[in-house]
Write a structure and sequence with these properties.
Elements: E1 19-35, H1 38-50, H2 55-78, E2 83-95, E3 98-112
Protein name: UPF0145 protein ISP17_08775
Pfam families: YbjQ_1
Family: Belongs to the UPF0145 family.
Length: about 110
Amino acid sequence: MAAAVAAALVSTTNDIPGYRIVRPMGVVRGITVRSRSIVGNLGAALQTLVGGNITIYTELCEKARGEAFDLMLRHAAAMGANAVVGMRYDANEVAEGVTEVLAYGTAVQVEPGA
């Protein structure tokens, strides 16, 4: 089984302070597709009447991003990487009420030292 990639070794920049990249390994990604339930839509509609943060959708987005991030880390570990640089999120609506969330970046092997 591949070693896990620590979340602390994921960066949105192209480097990780205190580490040097010794081997780039390619693009990695984690994708999840989520839909809003009828109950969730009803609850969110009620929250919009009051205004402010729509917590039902916030929780859904956080869960989807977390799942996509974890899948990306597993993909990187399966490739033999111990870090990910250039990490980004993307989201697209693939059908009405159905959203794809993608976490992606470049898998790398790093070692301590600048």
